[in-house]
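[Q] Does anyone have a clean structure-token version of this?
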Amino acid sequence: MSRDEQEWKTRLDRINVKLKKAGWDVKDRTKVLEEVDTKNSVFPHDIKHQKDTLSEEELEKAYADYILLDNRGMPLAVVEAKKAYKDPRIGKKQAEMYVDDIKNNLESKKDVLIFYTNGIDIWYWNKGFETPRLVSGFYSQDDLMRVRFQNVSAENFLDVQPREEIINRPYQLEAVQRVIEGMERGKRRFLIVQATGTGKTRVAMALIDVMIRAKRAKRILFLTDRTELNDQAFDENIVRFFPSESKQKVYSSTVDQDSRIYAATLQTMKNNYQDFSVGFFDLIISDEAHRSVYDKLGSVFEYFDAKLIGLTATPADYVDHYTYTTFGCEKNVPTFNFDYEQAVPKYLARYAVWQAQTGIQRDGIDASALTPEELRRLLVEEGLDPDDIDWTGSELERKITVKSTIKAMIREFMENCYEDDTGLPAKTIFFPVSIAHARRIEECFDEMYPQHHGELVSVITHDNPRKKQLVKDFKKKSLPRIAISVGILDTGVDIPEVCNLAFMRPIRSGIRFWQMLGRGTRHDSICDHRDWLPNGKKELFLIFDYWQNFEAHELNPTGPKMYKTEAITTKIFLNRLKLYRKFFDRNETENLEVIKQKIGADIDNLDKESLTIQKNEPSIEITKEPSFWGGVGRDPIDFLKKEIAPLMKHREGVALPEQTFVHNCEKYL
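[A] Here you go.
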């Protein structure tokens, strides 16, 4: 840039080009007027322009460089131009004087917006309503007319309360109030930190609703980082809470400009944002706001001159400096914070941690020895984003996809996981290292538990074209019970009945760790399928940590005390053992024989294809010996309770309603 560049050159090469991009053709006198005598012009018909005899110095004192007109030819905004090397802010007072002159000559006294620029930096001022700010470009005619309308029509936020059907919890109402109070003070960027499962999206919907009803926003953009999350937000929230508002999903720059609410992925906006005007949106809400989003979307956030709200479930201490800066907050001081510990037990389920003893440690891979720096280096060497770990093809993947390692992990999981009353695992998500690892886990499950005919487990990966249907099946149907997820169920998908999580991979990113942990935090009160839950209730959820992730994040690796779950068939069997002892002590021979036959039938109905049953075949055969009930050398009831009762969850053909009825009848005998 030359310091000798004249203002006319700056205007021709820089300002006119940027005006044209926003739809302002300086050659079109119905839209743009140049060199206007603001003191003596009467709009729209008697316009006084530059006189040839005026010097540049005199011109700067008397004439507005540009006046942008509305659709009726009336002044909408003034643009004050300065040479490229000058600070455009020296033109602020001039532009203000031009606006005062114009309004003095207008009967309507409508607001006239202000821009002052050197062709590089553009400052925008909605005088009387907002402080001046740097913007990336000029507003379009539609943008400016919308701002002018909002200046006179906006209602007081105090008169517009959040709708109870959207939010009704005290902390949610407080989150909305914090943002509204900030807006009233002139703040434009906000960061809301809420633990997964506490209704971040509901808070976002409430803010959208309040902004619309207060006439503070005409166009609102809701951003997510994946198509699945975009669909979920749109279909389950936007459509539900705004049935009468025009709305659309954005797939390109071709959109219906009359819509009120837009939903898009980060990638869609990254590819198309420059095709929109700078002021197209009044409000942008970014779901799951953190550093990786900032890296991907920083240019989008800086391009649009919209109020910006970030939502994240990442604990405030884990949120990085760039995220706080992007959303206008000081480090560790978000606009609103409601963390996991505040949310339990009233709103979220507490977790318990099973410190796994099999798999990684036994195969000689020391998980705790892999420091965050070493993991980051490995990721960078593979060209990967540290927050989007993909171990495909790595040495780590090769070591832990060994079947013997996986089977040991699965066996430990199946023996200790939370189960429903039929003995099936409660809804579970496995987080593997890679897609290859996920497929190997599926193979091992099918080999170890063939009695489930391949229906127990489902692999849900980002490369599967039917992933949306797979997620829906896992959420809505009893089977599959176990989802092995790569890049799909890590964040954002709500399945309240999940009671088990298995961390089959190192998770050194604090953001990703809390996202994954959040898959199990949904509260018992919102679970619809109680027959999938342990004892019909979700008191805790259980995390199998095969990689010492809790220690890596300096969290209590034991968690709260676990609670016991028993299959209905196990409960029936244990009760029958009590009845046997009761009838034996009372010498009720007939009842004793009946209960003995029922115990024998329970044992005969064990699933012969189960590896667990096959492994315990010697103990089962002992119960069939003629001398077993004689009690010689052993107490038959103690033996059955210790050796056979744990196998009862593997009984075949269990009909839960029928078995529950049987149990309820027999426990009162």
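[Q] Thanks! Anything notable?
[A] Residues 568-586 form the longest helix (19 residues).
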